[in-house]
Amino acid sequence: MFGPNLFHNIYSLIAVILFSVGFTALMLHRNMIKKIIGFNIMDTAVYLFLASKGYITGRKAPIIVDNVMSTEAYINPIPAGLVLTGIVVSVSVTALMLAITIRLYERYHSLDIDEISLRSRKDSPGRSKYNKIDTDEDEGDTQ
Amino acid sequence: MNFIENFVPFSIIICLGGGIACSALNGHTARRLTVVLLSIVTLMSACVLGYTTAIGHEFVYVMGKFPAPWGNELRAGCLEGLMALFFSIIMLLSIVGGVRGQNDDIPVDKMNLYFIMINLMMSSLLALVYTNDLFTAYVFVEINTMAACALIMIRNSGHTLVAATKYMIMSLLGSGLLLIGISMLYSITGQLLMPNIREAVIALDGSGEYAVPLTAVIGLISVALAIKSALYPFHSWLPEAYGYSTASSSAILSSLVSKGYIFLLIKIFYRVIGMDVMVDHKITNILFVFGIIGMIMGSVTAIRQNDIRHLIAYSSIAQIGYIYMGIGLGSSAGMVAAIFHIMSHGATKSMLFIAQRGLVEVSRGSKDFTDLKGSGFRNRLAGFAFAVGAFSMVGVPLLSGFTSKVYFAEAAITAVRSKMWIAMITLAISTILNAIYFIRATISVYTPRNMDYRDRAYRPARNSAIALVCFIALNFFLGILSYPIAYTIQTGLEFFG
Questions:
Q1: Contact B143, B152 (CB under 8 A)
Q2: Across the interface, do A50 and B367 touch by the CB < 8 Å criterion?
Q3: Which of B160, B187, B264, B305 has its CA 20 to 30 A from that of B212?
Q4: What CATH number belongs to A5-138?
Q5: Could you give the 3-state DSSP secondary structure of residue B223?
Q6: Is B162 close to A117, i.e. CB distance below 8 A?
Q7: Residue B381 belongs to some domain of the structure
Q8: Hey, is the C-beta of B135 within 8 angstroms of any chain A C-beta?
């Protein structure tokens, strides 16, 4: 199972372990902040994986200096582009998640998603009404 | 190059631009702009569909004129044109039909934000339909997720907030799996454009190299998109998200967002990995099993619901199960049935969500069936539309749901023997279960009770009446004239590879 390729692919291995750590945290942790941290670990693991796949030992970043035009001298730049795109996506998702967390905290004074879920169910008795009767449910955040 | 080919990137870009413009407008102007833009997109998608049908082959739009392995491409065949047309029609009708709901549920100062999200959603759906590049697909999947999250929580209440959080958590699990799946696929093939990956995958499959990573990639991508489209065991976020958001949002989420991901999965099946490789790796069997379980469990849970929104939401889980069952049959007939059901379910479910809003309005805002009794007499059009939708979901002839069930049954008969029996029996059981809760719901809507709820001053919203009439017409159209659509889907799948 662990052939000689293991050492060669050590970064991929680490990336997969980190990915599992982040995935588990995002799925199983009850605390919203820890979930968000888990999500970030998960995405960063993918960037490590991509970056390590693009790197070729002994070569340099593809910025042309000294007029070396041969492709043999440089590493693969595409994974770096993918990582950049991925970072943009994960930053915006993190911002959105943090914003949701703030609003949840303002309304329920808790970061525990199970408890929040429980309290939101108690919020309305069985049948919720539209606008007029809905006001008691809507107090608390007007931002 | 024909001028119509430019419509493909143009329809994506005007939606993105519309989103930016909406941020500077007030709510009502933003809605008008969005409706105009969606109508333009509908027309352009119809042109793309007509053009690709006329020329009889697909075309590729090269973004920025960078040639194949480097540049980014959009691709349109008649199936893509059909899907884009369908998505834009449903989006337009859902927006128009839910105007009164939007006015009631969304704070005035946030109305324009809602339409920013609608525009972003539309552009991401179109991009998912047209893109020929796997990483672009990932980026637009994320945009779609974020827009959907905002559509859920725009209605300011604790329920929608919790629903949006749950939706985001499940979706992020899916996105993570999709991202690592695409990265691994890139690392073993070295390509990002779909046809190039396909060539590399054929070579890998032939040589037997990287067999384990390829299986892992197939599993990761399928599970990721199954999570995102709420296949049965991953549906925990769905009832709350559909049950508490505003009617337009529920309609859009149930008939477009999950369907966009399923269409992407079908594209990946055909154009990236290849259907034969997928069937070899047995992933279709797994999807088949989960689809079957979803068909039963969704309906069983729906029977227990006393809230009209939750009933429709749980029925969505069953219908997603139908679609995955069709995909899981692993044959081209099954795929045609699945894609037809994407359309038939989209047209029906959005109609049900818009109609239920009309019924709830005349029942003192209650979503409970005891209060909804007799609402079909108080708001006749909404009651009729609800009945049509319910009968269509059950599978009454002349309606779209019946036709898709016929296609599923046809596909099941030609499938492998073991799958044939399971699929046919489950179809029968699921139809009975559907009938139990939908017929009960329709009967309770038409039970003459709660006469004191009648309000002389009440007038149904004109916009939603127009939308409901269009929805009913669309349902009958899909039910009666299904042949050209099924033929287009068939041809489009042949273009796929």
A1: no
A2: no
A3: B264
A4: 1.10.287.3510
A5: helix
A6: yes
A7: yes
A8: yes
Residue of chain B with shortest Cα separation from A54: B187
Q: What pLDDT does A1 receive?
A: 54
The DSSP bridge pattern shows strands B59-63 and B72-76 to be antiparallel
Q: Measured over all CA atoms, what is the biggest interatomic distance in chain B, rounded to whole angstroms?
A: 75
Rounded to a whole number of angstroms, the distance from the CA of B52 to the nearest CA of chain A is 32
Owning domain of residue B312: 282-497
Q: What is the distance between the alpha carbons of residues B472 and B388, in angstroms, rounded to a whole number?
A: 7
Q: Is B74 helix (H, G, I), strand (E, B) or coil?
A: strand
Q: What pLDDT is stored for residue A124 in this prediction? A: 61
Identity of the amino acid at B396? V
B72 near A CB under 8 A = no
Looking at the DSSP assignment, which residues form a beta bridge with residue B59? B76
Report the chain B residue with the minimal C-alpha distance to residue A45.
B180
Q: Report the run of H or E that residue B429 belongs to, with start and end.
A: helix B417-445
Q: How far apart are CA B245 and CA B257, in angstroms?
A: 14
Residue B90 has pLDDT above 50, yes or no: yes
Token digits of residue B341: 């059901």
Look at chain B and report how many structural domains it folds into.
1
Enter the tokens of residue B200. Answer: 């590399």
CB contacts of B138 in chain A (<8 Å) are: 89
Nearest by CB to residue B179, choosing from A46, A120, A132, is: A46
Give me the residue from B159, B172, B371 closest to A120, CB to CB. Answer: B159
Give A47→chain B minimum CA distance, Å.
Answer: 9
> B447 and B373 in contact (C-beta within 8 Å)?
yes
pLDDT digits (tens, 9 = 90+) for B113-166: 999 999 999 999 999 999 999 999 999 999 999 999 999 989 888 899 999 999
Span of B290-294, B415-419, B427-431 with lowest mean pLDDT: B415-419
pLDDT given at position A64: 83
Which residue in chain B is spatially nearest to A50 when comparing CA positions?
B183
Contacts of A35 in chain B (CB under 8 A): 169
Assigned domain for B246 exists: no
> Which residues 6+ apart lie within 8 Å of B328 measured at CB?
B284, B285, B286, B287, B288, B289, B291, B292, B334, B419
Domain presence at residue B67: no
**Any idea which residue has 């915006």 for tokens?**
A92
Beta carbons of B159 and B240 less than 8 angstroms apart: yes
Answer whether residue B373 is part of any domain: yes
The residue written with tokens 């990483």 in the block is B135
Cα A28 from chain centroid?
15
At A76-105, the pLDDT tens digits run 888 999 999 999 999 999 999 999 999 999
With b meaning 16 or more CB within 10 Å and e meaning fewer, what string describes B276-308?
Answer: ebbeebebbbbbbbbbbbbbbbbbbbbeebebb
Query: What distance in Å separates the CA atoms of residue B92 and residue B35, rounded to the nearest whole number?
Result: 6
- Determine, for residues A26 and B142 on separate chains, whether the beta-carbon distance falls below 8 Å: no
For residues A95 and A57, the model is more confident at: A95
Percent of chain B at pLDDT above 90?
Answer: 75
Which residues in chain A are contacts of B156 at CB distance < 8 A?
138, 141
Nearest Cβ partner for A93 among B138, B142, B367: B142
Q: Answer whether B431's CB lies under 8 Å from B438's CB.
A: no
The proportion of chain B whose per-residue pLDDT surpasses 70, expressed as a percent, equals 100
Task: Return the domain boundaries, chain A.
Answer: 5-138
* Any A CB within 8 A of B237 CB: no
